[in-house]
Every structure is written in C-alpha cells, then in structure tokens.
Hints:
The complex is a heterodimer of chains A (190) and B (292). By secondary structure, chain A is of the alpha/beta class. Chain A has one domain (2-187): Fe-S hydro-lyase, tartrate dehydratase beta-type, catalytic domain (fumarase). Chain A is built from seven helices and nine strands; from the N terminus they run βαβαβββαβαβαβαβα. Chain A has a five-stranded mixed beta barrel with strand order 2-3-6-7-9. In chain A, α1 links the parallel β1 and β2. Chain A starts with a strand and ends with a helix. With 292 residues, chain B is of the alpha+beta class. Chain B has two domains: 4-15 and 61-141 and 275-290; 144-270, no CATH class. Chain B contains eight helices and nine strands. In chain B, α4 links the parallel β1 (67-75) and β2. In chain B, α1 packs across α4 (80-96). The longest helix of chain B is centred in the N-terminal third of the chain and has 19 residues, at 39-57. The model of chain B has no long low-confidence stretch (mean pLDDT 96).
Amino acid sequence: MKLQYPFTEEQVRALRVGDPVEISGIVFTGRDVVHKYLHEGGKLPAGVSLENGIVYHCGPVVVKDEQGAWKVTAAGPTTSIREEPYQWQVIRDFRLRGVIGKGGMGEKTLEACREHGCVYLHAIGGAAQVLAECVKKVRNVYFLKEFGSPEAIWELEVENFPAVVTMDSHGNSLHREVLAHSTAELAKRL
Amino acid sequence: MQGLHQSLLELIRRTSAEIPDDVQRSILSALEREKKGTIAESALKIIERNIELAKQKSQPICQDTGSILFYVDAPVGFDLITFEDTARAAVTEATKKGYLRQNSVDSLTGANDGTNVGPGSPVVHFHPHRESVVHVRLQLKGGGCENVGAQYSLPNEKLKANRDLDGCRKVVLDAVLQAQGKGCGPGILGVCIGGDRATGYEHSKLQFLRKIDDRNPNPELDKLEQDVLNTANELGIGPMGFGGKTTLLGVKATTLNRLPASFFVSVSYMCWAFRRQGVELDSNGGITKWLY
C-alpha cells in the first residue's frame, strides 16, 4: 500500500493493523525535546507544517557532503513510547495523519488516532541504512542549534519508506494484542 | 603507542558499521525459524539487508550509536591516561566522520556539543593482568535497549519471586515481558545475580563480551540461560514485538557475591544490532588481530 504526500484522512482511515505501507513525500522528524516543547506551548517555526503530515520519531545521523549539502547517513526510528504523554495533543492540534516510530504507543495515542484519523506506522528498529536510502533529500532543518542534531526537526523527502501499520484509526493495536498474548503465555510457564 | 589513535578509530568504525560474525549467524538462524509471509519474517529480512548495506557503505548499522564502552585488559604499567586521551580523540574524529552520532547530552542544560566527549563519555573500564597482551574491546549500546534494562530486588512479592534460582528466572522473564518489542528484539540478555546496584548492572553488561553461541561453564547458570532463552521464545513477542518465534537470541548470566540484606538481579537488554568488537594490540598500538 502506497501512502503519498499530502496524506489525507481518507487514505489513513482505509488502513488496518498489519498492513505494510510504503511512504513517499515529506516527513518531519520530531522526538523527545520537540514533543516536550510543543506540550509546553512552544510554537513551530515557520516552514514546519504538520497539517495532514507525518511525524517521524527519529534522530538521524546527518553529515555535510562535499557540496555542503546535508546528507542523511543513518535514519532508523527511536522508541516512541517516550512521547506517549504528548502525542495525542500533537495529533489533535496539528491534524497529524501518521506517526512513524518503533515499539508502539499507548491508549491515549490510540484514542487520538481513532478520534482524529491518524495511524501509527512501525518502522524497523535499527534499520538505519535501509531507511537512510529512502531519504532522497534533506529539505531543511529547524532548531538545530537549540536542540542539537538528534533532537532537531529535520524536513525529509522520502521515497517508498517501508513501515507496518501497528495501530490503526479504528481502535486496533498490535501492541495491545501481543502484550496480552505474551502475558498469558508467560503465566502458564511460571 | 603511536599507532593507537588509528587503531581505536578503526575499532570504532568497524564496531559501528559491521555486525560481528556470531551475531549475524544467530540472526540468520532466527530468519529461517520465522513463519513465511509474516511481518516477523519481513522485519528480519530488512535487518539482514541493513547489515549488508552498513558494511558496504561503512556507515552505522543503527543511527543510535549508543554509549561508548571501552574495556581494556592490559599489563600492569600500561599507560591508561594516554589511552583515555587517545580514546577521546578517536571518538571525536569518529563522530566527525559519521561513524558515531552526536550522542552526548548535558543532563542539566540539554546541550549537545556534538563531540561525544564529556563526563561519562566515553567510558573506559580497565582490568590489569599479569600477561603481556593488550586487548581493547568496544561495545556501542543504544538507548532503546538501555531503557528496557531492569534491576530487581528479591524477594519480589508482586512476581512471587523468592531468593532462589527460580525467583531469578521469574524476574528475568518479567524483564523480557515488559520490554516487549521496545528494545529492538530479537535481543540478548546480560544478567548478573548479586552485587550491589552499581556492580550488578556493570557485570550484567560484561556478559555481552561473551560470544553468542558459547555456553556457561557453571551448570546451574547454563540451565538458567537455556531455560530463559527457550521460554522467552515461546511468549510470541517476536522481532520488534511484531509477534513471532524469536524474541531472544541469547541469555548470558553471571553471579557476584552479595550482602546478606540485598539480592539484586540486574538485567541488561542488548538489541539485535549487537555492536561489540575487540582488538589485540602490539607494542606500537597496531592491531594484530580481531577478537570477534
């Protein structure tokens, strides 16, 4: 299933847990510092438009090439659960259509996905090179000096970025299922 | 030791960009075990592809190049001060070259000066011995898996774990359950039974210097390792927590003496991107062999 920017509510509501997707278009990275900053009422810099957008929980390794342009050399996801206190607000306030990360998120995020039309897209943790190859261009970077490279907002143009829907906009979560199943299996073996 | 800087730079590069043979073999077996057509299988395929690409491009396997942990085994009289200075310089250069992410943050101010050098980074553990050989090992351990480590105090009433091997088994399995997919499984556990809160965690991480396919010479610990490994793989957490047959690739356990009042079980979780390497150095600091 191809997810093409701009991402619409319609595209996203059609997705279900377990669906593999390939994302193309613009995504913005945002992790611990950005989410806390937004939660505390911080304003997004001009140029960062999250409306109908996708946030990628990622702190890439970015270097400057010989021409002085930014180049992403490693870009796997970070663990999303740390943003669980804040993600629902960002989804609501900016009309986010997708959150890319790893490890899943909780009930608050799941409910916001259901209410506003958003999905959680699980990328492969540690697949930094495979995912860096999907980044065609670094369009811009914001808050680089203030937050440092891993925590900055990197505006990335991606092509066929692979992920799996593990939380859809209909209240379903693979993480909830796996937790329940593994808890039951362990209880039998203690 | 004028060759030391270049050797440490190469050690860092290779540790960051190339997975050691024993780990790769383990991941390949896991891939064969997963059911065809599942998300688990496709996750492991992407992991395999990622390993190849990283090696080809000499770029980090994972963007979180983690805590930089050096372990030096050297004769009495080895100049550790010069080693630490050289290690810091090599880390700074490796970061400029992109082998390491700018990963070191001031905990009070949030500032990241981009060098990876600061209080607590890099870490150098030094262990003197009476042989003449110098071994330098390096672990790069990411934050994702670091965050799902846990330290338990026995007895643990909630988990019905008493001060015995069965109690240890229960809490270690609890750590696996709580981690779910958040440590980028299939993972490897390092376990230390005993010690204090600091040495417990420290020795749990020393376990990662063992080879994945080795066996514990202590029969009781070997039994614990195999049991936890097999049981964890029956829980159905799978790679990345997607569900599947491989949740852990290995369990490595050790013990330390403890105080009568304390009984800690420290569990460190290592992700599939198990970056650890080592070199033997000659008297000029040149690499004579790789340890993994």
